[in-house]
Amino acid sequence: MYALNQMYGLARAMRLGQLVYWGYHAPKGMIQKTLKRGVINRAADQKAQRQMEAAADKLPRLEPSENPKKIYFLSGRKFWYQTCFCAYSLVQQSGTYFRPVIYDDGSLSQTYQAKIKRIFPDAEIISHEVTEAKLDEFLPSQQFPTLRSRRLEYFNLRKLTDIHVNDAGWKLVLDSDMLFFRRPDFLVNWLEAPQQPCYMVDVETAYGYSDKLMRELAGAKIPEAINVGICGLQSDAIDWAELEYWCKTMIESEGTNYYQEQAMAAMLMARADSQVAPKQDYILMPGQGEARNPQGVMHHYVADSKPWYFHYGWKHIAGEGMT
Length: 323
Fold this sequence. Notes:
The chain is of the alpha/beta class. The protein has a single domain, classed as Spore Coat Polysaccharide Biosynthesis Protein SpsA, Chain A (Alpha-Beta Complex), CATH 3.90.550. The strands form three sheets. Strands 4-7-6-8 form a four-stranded mixed β-sheet, covered by helices on one side. The chain has a three-stranded parallel β-sheet with strand order 1-2-3, with helices on both faces. Helix 1 runs parallel beside helix 6, helix 6 packs across helix 10 and helix 9 crosses helix 11. The longest helix has 36 residues.
């Protein structure tokens, strides 16, 4: 009963957080983006985004290889085409086929699943219903009230819970808004023989929680500037009771934060040596010049680099001219 009351209390608080977000922060963020880019530029960005989604329907079908290594994504209606471009460019540049395993965020209808499977015939799409049933069995709300409540309104946490719970072995989870332009030897080698966690380097440390709290919870020094656009972890090494405690304590001590999943991944990686993608090759938030003429192996288009993703990035992969 105590755990149930805890869960209801957290859920009420998080529902309030959702109301505040959608009623204030989301509109405010949209207004700020429009003011920063300007109405005309924002309209051009949205047009370029629609062009990218349409271009995903024209990507050539890939021929699966025998027993390919797997790459993992969380995706949905708003991101399916980005997932396809990321996985397609990885295969294209590595010269090696990788099988996408895509966890549905609840919005990936049969229409969009078919679009993905047209390009990747062997893509494994884990339905929202299958994931929920697995969580009910192996991460039940009575024992893990914070994790279960938090993932309902904070989708990033699903990259940990949904993909890793009740599974074994190493998994490479990739963000969809990334593109590859040269052979990614670092990732190809890691996928061939994973033995340590792996990640890419952020432009700054962005965890959303104090180093003091994170060190106390992890019992180890926290590495700086981990970005989980690339995140290789061993599923069966994750202690879910510990993650429940971490998640609960972080929220109670310092509130919810957009970067909480990244912070929790950093805490997991703090306890062992990790393999780090070379920063000069795996570029977070590329500038306009780099986006127009990529020198890096990979770009992760976050924040202010998102317009360059839609205007330039995908066109290198699709072979379309840029304006």
